[in-house]
Design the sequence.
């Protein structure tokens, strides 16, 4: 039988193996497409998760930063509150102490009978300045007996005791009136010496007495030279001495000299605090500074002297000497050799000029003092 012919509109028949390969290729392409879509989806999801994680980390960091600021602000406020509380507590404690002190002051009244004069004060006032007779007496270490009215008797001059009490009540600003007569001040000084208050209430009383004697003797002599000298010396009863440079040794800087009742070569002697150095007129009629063995009649030894050539330089007060004429030996007055090696030399014996010296009056009799006023009047009347 002859073979059957294919119609023209019928597709050609494929072998079965080719169809299977085409189906497998189509399935593989579909798998790859689906896999690629899934991978892309997973990548986008992972990126989204990363962005979300970063956002959470940022928000967490900001939250921690805000929390730290809140904590810091809270700690600062707490510290400020503690300080306020401490200040309030301290203020209350001070107020309580002040009230207790005021109460003690009012209730701890002391009656005194000083030489027949009666005074009312407090124990706090009597012991306010240490190392005095009254501070010791009312320290509580001694058993005191009072009279029938409860007063404690002190056998001293009661007329001047009010000055003692006024000083004890306000020792920081008390100043004895300048109107107190010289005789009264001398009597008061005796009482202050007994109570241990002389150096505190009249710190330059001994020097003022020397000044009065100098002025009185000058008034008796009556010469212009002696009056001028006494006036200058009475205005310089105490002064400080030193150099504005480190030329002098520290022990010589800012020394305070006070006039004494000693006289060497017809002029008063000033003694420095500590008693090591003295300022005096030497035998060469120049103002000098030396030790105790140098400050004697007939001696011209010293460690420093003023090289002034003024006619009256030997009799004026130290405060009136030219400050650029002081010279000294290198030892023991000056500092290390390096500091004075280039200094100006005076003579062949090693004396050197002390640079930038200064002498400043600290205490002296003012023009209103009776002795000073009398000397000034007498001096003004001379031709």
Sequence:
């Amino acid at each position: 039988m002859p073979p059957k012919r294919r119609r023209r509109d019928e597709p050609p028949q494929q072998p079965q193996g080719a169809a299977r390969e085409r189906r497998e290729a189509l399935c593989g392409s579909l798998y790859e497409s689906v896999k690629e879509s899934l991978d892309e989806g997973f990548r986008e999801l992972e990126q989204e998760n990363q962005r979300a994680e970063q956002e959470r980390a940022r928000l967490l960091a900001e939250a921690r930063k805000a929390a730290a600021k809140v904590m810091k602000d809270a700690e600062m406020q707490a510290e400020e509150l503690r300080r306020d509380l401490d200040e309030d507590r301290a203020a209350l404690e001070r107020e309580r102490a002040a009230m207790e002190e005021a109460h003690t002051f009012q209730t701890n009244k002391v009656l005194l009978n000083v030489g027949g004069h009666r005074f009312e004060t407090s124990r706090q006032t009597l012991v306010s300045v240490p190392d005095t007779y009254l501070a010791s007496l009312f320290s509580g270490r001694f058993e005191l007996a009072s009279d029938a009215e409860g007063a404690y008797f002190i056998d001293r001059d009661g007329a001047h005791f009010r000055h003692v009490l006024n000083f004890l009540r306000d020792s920081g600003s008390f100043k004895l009136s300048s109107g107190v007569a010289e005789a009264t001040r001398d009597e008061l000084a005796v009482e202050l010496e007994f109570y241990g208050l002389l150096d505190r209430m009249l710190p330059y009383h001994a020097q003022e007495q020397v000044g009065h004697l100098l002025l009185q003797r000058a008034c008796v002599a009556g010469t212009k030279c002696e009056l001028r000298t006494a006036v200058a010396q009475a205005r310089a009863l105490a002064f400080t001495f030193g150099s504005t440079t480190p030329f002098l040794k520290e022990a010589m800087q800012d020394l305070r000299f006070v006039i004494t009742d000693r006289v060497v070569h017809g002029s008063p002697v000033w003694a420095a605090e500590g008693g090591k150095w003295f300022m005096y007129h030497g035998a060469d009629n120049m103002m000098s500074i030396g030790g105790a063995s140098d400050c004697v009649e007939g001696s011209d030894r010293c460690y420093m002297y003023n090289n002034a050539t003024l006619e009256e330089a030997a009799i004026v007060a130290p405060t009136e000497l030219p400050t650029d004429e002081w010279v000294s030996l290198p030892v023991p007055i000056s500092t290390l050799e390096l500091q004075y090696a280039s200094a100006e030399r005076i003579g062949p014996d090693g004396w050197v000029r002390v640079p930038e010296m200064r002498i400043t009056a600290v205490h002296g009799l003012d023009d209103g003092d009776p002795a000073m006023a009398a000397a000034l009047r007498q001096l003004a009347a001379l031709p």
User: Anything to note?
Assistant: Residues 114 and 161 are 7 Å apart (CA to CA). The chain is about 45% helix and 15% strand. The mean pLDDT is 84. The radius of gyration is 50 Å.
